[in-house]
Amino acid sequence: MITKKELNFFKKEGYLIKNTNSIDSLNQIQSFIFNTLNKHSKINFSNDSKINFFTKFHKNINKKKLNEIRVSAINDINKKNGFRDLYYEAAKELLDDLVGNEVAMQKKINLSIQIPNDKKSILPMHSDIYAGESPFEVVIWIPMMNVKKSSHSMFITNPRDNIKINKDVTTGGKSTLQKIYQKHKKKFKFIKIDYGQILIFSPIIQHGNVINRTDETRISLNCRFKSLLTPFDVFSKTHRNIPHFFQPYNIKPLTQIGFNFINAINKKKFHGSL
């Protein structure tokens, strides 16, 4: 259960790192990622060397095939029966306390592979709100190994500074995001997190990564969640809703009765309906 101190930290900083409430679920996730990357990269590491496999991944693959391997692994992840359940269970405590126990879960779980010195894997400073995401979402971000060094991780600002940075983004004219990032660089914090921990953050807050200057690959998963009963498509009609982008994960009987009633009255599917 999240403490009052942790809750206040999340409100102030826009993110929280906490040990998973189900290490068994997380270990099953890690084993599946190991097996699917092993299959598509054809490295054939033994099962007792998962961390070494992940961190040295770049040394054992044809880098020109990195994206092909990643896309194949993502397809496996999202076809695997029960994988979504494992993902939810690994972060259930955080989601229950910060979002609620009736949630919509992103239909597609994403996999990120950031190898050393790869410019293609850079994700510049951004806020997901500009891509049409709801301000009521969170991202559950799960690393497959310890992430301790700045360029091996992701950076994030806080809700207070985010407002100032967003103002520069929307009124900056010809200023590039990189120039705005450099201007506000001291307002960003690089996340340090161990395997076995979960990062939850608000994606409306500016975040991103830089070139990985370490000698280790970083492999992580991310997926968006939101309360089933908070608005979708707040600032744009991008169809980031149910059933296009999200699926209901937990839905209580009374909520289902209410949605069914709305559907019958309106004679069309309500965004929150099954």
What are its keywords?
three-stranded antiparallel beta sheet; alpha+beta; Jelly Rolls; globular; 274 residues
Task: Describe what you observe in this structure.
The structure is a single chain. The chain is of the alpha+beta class. The protein has a single domain (4-23, 88-266), classed as Jelly Rolls (Sandwich), CATH 2.60.120. Helices cover 36% and strands 16% of the residues. The chain is built from nine helices and ten strands. It has helices spanning 4-13, 23-41, 50-55, 66-79, 83-90, 92-98, 159-171, 177-183, 253-266, and strands at residues 15-19, 103-106, 110-114, 137-143, 155-156, 189-190, 197-201, 207-208, 218-227, 246-248. Strands 1, 2, 3, 4, 7, 9 and 10 form a seven-stranded antiparallel beta sheet that branches. It has a three-stranded antiparallel beta sheet with strand order 6-5-8, with no helix packed on it. Helix 2 packs across helix 4 (66-79) and helix 2 crosses helix 5. It is globular. It starts with a helix and ends in an 8-residue tail after the last helix.
